[in-house]
Amino acid sequence: MRWTRGALVVRNVVAAVVVVAIGGTAISASAAPGQQSRTADVKTVPFEVSGELPIYPKALWSNGSSGASVRKVEARLVQLKLLDQQWMDDDFGTMTRSAVKKFQKSKGIPPLGYIDQFTWTQLTAATHEPTQAELFPPAPVVDGKKLDQRCATGVALCIDKTTRKLRYVVNGVVKMQLDVRFGAQKTATREGGFTVGWKSRNHVSKLYDSKMPFAMFFSGGQAVHYSSDFAARGYNGASHGCVNVRDLAKIKILFDQVHVGDKVIVYRS
């Protein structure tokens, strides 16, 4: 540029023109002489807006929640016969979620499958405060002794090491009782709460090369199964950690009654 008669003369100035292709893939701009125009590719993310985005109510209890409050929710669903008592276990899982959805549908509430404040208000209005007996049904009593409290609800193989008995219990009612034996001191049968992980009708142990018919596995390689050795020798022998049954006729029936996921409670009375 140069000064001429007090006026500023600007040479070689070209106004930039910017073209923006909305929804397209390119942005181009003119440049000053001597410079090449540049084209930049722009990647767009397609989206659609159809009305307002939904706003979901805050969950008080949902899938994965646990504790005493969840048990109270489940007890109320049991009152309405939307949930079987065996699933009243303090854990908000698949069965509880399904029961909640059924309740919501019956009340014209969107079946979200979790408990929000409005659903909770409707549920409390439709039920009464659960009693202690409803929350914690009394454990079955056999021969004057209470079984483990965990055997009071649902389906359970309730195994007492003290009395050496296995009791098949359904919702607090003893359906079957079998004599059992356990592992030796070095291969003790584990105690605690388990579930049946898998079943094998004609199982053979690869570790000990021994037959384990009607096996119901609950903890690693430990299972409830028929033992011909137990039938022949009684309590003079021991297992390698499994729960041996000596009554073949009974365990055949039991095997067909028990399902994967049923509780196995091994304890001492």
What does this structure look like?
- Residues 1-31 form the signal peptide.
- It comes from Kribbella koreensis.
- The active site is at 225 (proton donor/acceptor), 242 (nucleophile).
- InterPro entries: LD-transpeptidase, LD_TPept_cat_dom, Peptidoglycan-bd-like, PGBD-like_sf, PGBDSf, Transpep_catalytic_dom.
- By secondary structure, the chain is of the alpha+beta class.
- The protein folds into three domains: 2-41, no CATH class; 59-133, PGBD-like superfamily/PGBD (Muramoyl-pentapeptide Carboxypeptidase, domain 1); 138-267, L,D-transpeptidase catalytic domain-like, CATH 2.40.440.
- 20% of the residues lie in helices and 30% in strands.
- The chain has six helices and 18 strands.
- It has helices spanning 68-79, 94-106, 117-126, 132-135, 228-233, 248-257, and strands spanning 2-4, 7-9, 18-20, 26-29, 38-41, 59-61, 115-116, 141-142, 145-146, 155-160, 165-170, 173-181, 192-195, 198-204, 211-219, 222-226, 243-245, 263-267.
- It has a nine-stranded mixed beta sheet. The protein has a three-stranded antiparallel beta sheet with strand order 3-4-5, with no helix packed on it. A two-stranded antiparallel sheet has the order 1-2.
- A hairpin with a 2-residue loop joins strand 8 and strand 9.
- It is elongated, with a radius of gyration of 35 Å.
- Residues 1-40 and 42-49 have low confidence and may be disordered.
